[in-house]
Amino acid sequence: MQKWMESPPGQVTAAVMAAIDAGYRHFDGAYAYQNEKEVGDAIQQKIKEGVVKREDLFVVSKLFSTFHEKHLVKGACQKTLADLKLDYLDLYLIHWPSGFKAGDVLFPTDENGMIIPSNTDLLQTWEAMEELVDAGLAKAIGISNFNHEQIERILNKPGLKYKPANNQIECHPYLTQEKLINYCQSKGIAVTAYSPFGSPDRPWAKPEDPSLLDDPKIKEIAAKHNKTAAQVLLRFHIQRNVIVIPKSVTPQRIVENFKVFDFELTKEEMATLLSFNRNWRICQFIQAKTHKEYPFHAEY
Fold it and tell me: What are phi and psi of 192, to 5 degrees?
């Protein structure tokens, strides 16, 4: 389950508690979402109630771009752990391949509204990530929003100690990511899909944007299985061996999103969903377009 930036604090705690009660054990967060304290409160509450133990949970967070300098990585991870009230993360990802100017401003921009980059090297940042595993702060490390060329650079790094365990990317039937998924899986890197519903609550949505949840062909497939469009969109990933993280703060939908293990999409339905690809990306991060590590100039 993904916990995204637009949810008010109290709502986040309630959502995580509802999710644990519904059976969720994988929680995806990030420093950038600015709600890790609330997530930590929910987890501690459920541990206290005896509903779960820490080792039952798989907790993910992400190193933000203002902490790419090698000497800042450990402190950033420790801040996240303190907020979550945990001793270790199951998985810690580099949130974006592009490093930003260090400081308290999440998105430092110049007079043209473009991100001010840091002069950091991905491979140096990766070395600092590896040190977190050795220090016991993270059980596994990975990446997010990386293209295959950036991944290749890490895999080919001299003296590589740990390869990325996971690449978390935007993925849904309008952005099927076949090449990148095949590449990652061929290298033994698990893939996680974010925005599986197309992030309908994103603040920058335009009225003319396509809507996955309202797509008549997706609704038609859902009706055949007596499921919702959301459930079909989640099942789509599961059948591609892709981990999927739906984001919801509505208890009823949190429960609904979990009921995706009792049906199967046919080969034809999977092919139909894949045929909807139009390389439509919701999280384009335009302000970072001029950054040397902007990931979306590459084909995949």
Answer: -115, 135
